[in-house]
Amino acid sequence: MLDFFKTLLYSDLGSALNNWALLGFRVLLAVELFRVHGLRKFQYPAGEAPEVVPNPLGLPAALNQLVATFSDTVVPLLVVLGVATRLAVLPTIGVTAIGYFVVHRRDSVAVRDVPYIYTICFLLLLALGPGTRSVDHYLWQWLAT
Fold it and tell me: Collapsing DSSP states into helix, strand and coil, what is residue 113?
């Protein structure tokens, strides 16, 4: 069981500089996702309807909206803090990959690049974890003792 938690929580990029750089990457990526996509779920100019999330998989509308809203609002907070990072990024990877491969598959490269870049960035966080500047790191240290 401890091996599972180590795989989930432990992340050290080997040097302080690398771990600080990963913190900066996490924060900038998450803030941008929330600022551009998360806030649109709640704020919209007068006279316009809230953002409608495409539903290419035919999920129930409420579930589709919930997953998209969660991945654009809650996940960025978890990523900034480094809380359950490897699990937290999964919904966002799913939403952005579906955006790239399904929703925007016939669009121009200029439209497709946004979900592509988000998918690649969150896949990197899935692989690397949050680094030592994270709640995950301190939680792992607590569990390992």
Answer: helix
